[in-house]
Amino acid sequence: MRNLSPHQFIDVIARAGSIRKAAEALAITSTALNRRVLALEEELGVPIFERLPRGVRLSTAGELLVTHLRHQASDFERLRSQLADLAGARRGHVSIACSQALLPFFLPEQIGRYRRDHPGVTFAVHLRDRAAAEAALVAHDADLALIFEPIRLSEVQILASVRQQIHAVMAIDHPLAARETVRLRDCAAFPVGLPTAQYGVRALIDLALVRFSIRLRAMLESDNFDFLRRYPAQEHLISFQIPIGLPDDATAEGVTSRPVDTRDIPEGRLYLCQLRGRTLPVAAAKFAALVEGSLQQRYEG
């Protein structure tokens, strides 16, 4: 308990919403943790938490404190990364919040490339939808975000963006598989599987359906793109994905994909982002440069 920094215990309480739950996570007693909070509040002269019937929440002063503490922790991580680089051994930790499409193929490849040269760098990769990924940057829970459509927050700085054309995924013997591209009205003749509403792919599809007054027969809806990519092998159902979420050769899974005509669904964009105004630790900055180069070479070259 004596070695816990304010950043550690205040941040854990804020996330848990309860001193009791935070104490369990920190493996200390709730009484001891509460004393630590009261002592810090007395030192600062303001309450950090509002006590509620079923937990606590940050006061306005507490929100300012947590933001300051997270900035401090981020600055220290950047310093430690810079010192390791001076010593000739890159170390550090890179936290990434990303859309599902990045998980099966692109990020494993990029992290593997990076760690082969810098095995002292560790990674945390967290699946987040668009809004949650942006929030993770603001909360310093993520160094980088890779998200598909759109960017809403002014606090987000875009490091790179590449075009991604929506693809229709279907069985290799599907009637539409013989075409180079497919039209949205052609897809309407078959059952489809759609991602849930929080995803950028679904947002682009919904806009196109309204624009052209087309109705799709959605027989499946899922928040798992891996499931949606694989399922068309089971029946003549069409699902949708962006290229970065597709393997180079999907025929081994019994499926293939065809781009949807951009007259029907315009290309979306995949964004590599960080928090605006933040200087990233060396490890995260160098990894971001690697990812940016790979994206540009693959999709904009």
Q: How is this structure best described in words?
A:
With 301 residues, the chain is an alpha/beta fold. It has three domains: 1-85, Arc Repressor Mutant, subunit A, CATH 1.10.10.10; 90-161 and 269-300, D-Maltodextrin-Binding Protein, domain 2, CATH 3.40.190; 166-266, D-Maltodextrin-Binding Protein, domain 2 (3-Layer(aba) Sandwich), CATH 3.40.190.290. The protein contains ten helices and twelve strands. The strands form four sheets. The protein has a five-stranded mixed β-sheet with strand order 4-3-5-12-6, sandwiched between helices. Strands 10-7-11 form a three-stranded antiparallel β-sheet. A two-stranded antiparallel ribbon has the order 1-2. Helix 1 (6-16) crosses helix 4 (60-86). The chain starts with 5 loop residues before the first helix and ends with a helix. The model has no long low-confidence stretch (mean pLDDT 89).
Identify the notable features of this structure and list them briefly.
D-Maltodextrin-Binding Protein, domain 2, alpha/beta, 41% helix, 10 helices, five-stranded mixed beta sheet, 301 residues, Arc Repressor Mutant, subunit A
Quick rundown:
α1 crosses α2 (19-26), α1 packs across α4 and α2 crosses α3 (30-44).
What proportion of the residues form beta strands (DSSP E)?
15-25%
* Major sheet description: 5 strands, mixed
Question: What is the name of the CATH architecture of the largest domain?
Answer: 3-Layer(aba) Sandwich
Shape: elongated
Class inferred from helices and paired strands: alpha/beta
Helix-residue proportion: 40-55%
Q: How many strands in all?
A: 12
Q: Which blocks of ≥5 consecutive residues have pLDDT under 50? A: none
Could you give me the name of the CATH homologous superfamily of the largest domain? Periplasmic binding protein-like II
Mean pLDDT: 89
CATH topology of the largest domain: D-Maltodextrin-Binding Protein, domain 2
* N-to-C CA distance: 54 Å
Write out the strand line-up for the largest beta sheet, numbering strands in chain order: 4-3-5-12-6
